[in-house]
Amino acid sequence: MAADVIVLGAGIIGVSVAVQLARRGKSVVLLDRRGPGEETSFGNAGLIQREGVVPYGFPQDLGLLARYSLNNRIDAHYHMAAMPKIAPFLARYWYHSQPARHAAISRSYAPLIEHSVTEHSILIDEAKAGDLIVKNGWMEAYRTEAKRDDDFAFAERLARDHGISHTKLTQQELAQAEPHLSHDFVGGLKWDDPWSVLDPHSLTMAYLRLFESLGGTFVKGDAAALSQTPTGWKIQTENGLIEAESVVVALGPWSDTVTTRLGYRFLMGVKRGYHMHYAPQDGTKLNNWLIDAERGYFLAPMKKGIRLTTGAEFADRDAPKSPVQLYRAERVARTIFPLGGRLDAEPWMGARPCTPDMMPVIGIAPRHKSLWFAFGHAHHGLTLGPITGRILAEAMLGETPAVPIAPYAAERFNP
């Protein structure tokens, strides 16, 4: 089989790239070792984070770092045995998170986020997936006035600098919005602009069906089998040999299975995360996607039940599951909302692909004219899928991307 482009990786990024290329008339084969959207894209909190113009940085406060070192929190956990291997990534992550550098990175990152909802909206309409979307923002609930007031001030800055809309909630207004939430909270903050997704995997599958309706093909195969030919690339799949002029690496935390063999080195880390679904107790309902701001876990009312998600686990990518954060979160979450029984047989785990400067890698490979990259989106893979697909497709076709892609170039790591 011959195609114009092979896209390696069928998470939300790879599917979005494939859709955007197919929408522009290219013949595309999308490849993954598993079904579409079954890895990292399966288990996120279901937010298209229009407010997320400031990427998640490494804490700079020494007192907070000391508390993290105790390794007993929900929002972050680490494997001591993995520290020697991931220390170079963490050191650079800390370096880029220092205030002046982080502010500069945010200015380069914000244009991607600014297109997140609008680009999703186009694909949602074309994929007829509107029934999966809730256009009601999401909430942060605060246990202390200090944290509440700090976040209120941050929201004001985002409103001033980026036009991000928000609503400040008193204790009474939060209770009115969430009548079954406990009275542990002194107020809340609602981010008005984001959209929520009732089933992230179903949204990825809707985009896949759109891709296939445009003539695209999904196949199963091992991306490590990719090899170069005199005219492009080839790969053996379950459907036979595929050849194409160009290839896109969109393998998330597994991108190194291709990039390393081709001579590229990316200082990548993973933030592993867990989720579990719960039934609400009879007669209760969670109305909003909601984070317990001081504890660092998230509750999302999805089709499968209330999804409880954890913060970041710093560990080797392929280490066995260790869902201690989930169990910590469940104990706390049951004190603030009447969760019922678990609906999943075991905790789900995914690995967010992270660069130390918090920006994805999007663009052409420095030493291969027909090799393209789209990975490293950390917490915002779902948010940034369609806009990443659009600007990469535009660059591949020689058009001017809607967002300048120079800040996301692979040369940051491979000069």
TrEMBL record:
<dbReference type="Pfam" id="PF01266">
    <property type="entry name" value="DAO"/>
</dbReference>
<dbReference type="InterPro" id="IPR006076">
    <property type="entry name" value="FAD-dep_OxRdtase"/>
</dbReference>
<feature type="domain" description="FAD dependent oxidoreductase">
    <location>
        <begin position="4"/>
        <end position="394"/>
    </location>
</feature>
<keyword id="KW-0560">Oxidoreductase</keyword>
<protein>
    <submittedName>
        <fullName>FAD-binding oxidoreductase</fullName>
    </submittedName>
</protein>
<dbReference type="InterPro" id="IPR036188">
    <property type="entry name" value="FAD/NAD-bd_sf"/>
</dbReference>
